[in-house]
Amino acid sequence: MTAVGMAATTLPAIPFPHPVGRPVAFCVAAVAAAWIALRPQSALALLDWSPHLLQGFAMNVLISASAIALGTLIGLILGVLELSSLRLLRLPAITYVQIFRNAPHLVLIFATTYALPFEIAVGGWHIAFPDWLKAVVGLAVPASAHIAEIARGAIQSIPAAQWEAAGSLGFSRLQTLRWIILPQGLRRSLPAWMNLYASIAMGSALASLVGVEELLHAATDASTAVRRTDFTIAVYLTVLVVFFAYCYPISRVTQRLERRFAV
User: Is the pLDDT assigned to residue 27 strictly greater than 80?
Assistant: First the structure.
């Protein structure tokens, strides 16, 4: 175990804030029970639309998970390139990060939707490039820029003495980065990475604006079809509750990791 790992495991326990999940769940259940009693027809309509809403939510999970996976892969490479001693590698990486780190997610989703083709020709095959996949690219671009900064900061947080010690033991710079620096840096960057994942998960609702049939789009379809004010309020509150149930556990785990690693 490294010195950093030993320090993390010997940290004193810090009291964790009282969770808000149970009070929120109780309030939601109470409001839902009252609404079902007062508006049984709207409740039945919401039940009928629930498979469509769940299908839309599955699309949100697919988009957010794919975007953070792609963004993590690209971001780790960019983070390492930002620290390169070669100007030819360092400057393009820094430029990419600075541009897309400060770009609105919605603008990037629209840009990828209209800039990318509807299908890709590979040999004699034509592979469809659907809108949801374009939304994945649109969210992965800013995610990679943020992850590059997270990775760069995590690597720089490792004391330079570890580089020197590894060099004295015969490790090359690449071996030191792969086997000593990155494992520690990844652990330190995990809370920030999870915060970004929660942000990307909420941002996946923006895909509805370019026609992707995710949860918010499904709620709009349901509201348009049923045409009842109380149902419209209920269905959008359902969207809110579903996103809260998706992102709140991520927030809780992130807070625990921050205390665990004393970030």
Answer: no
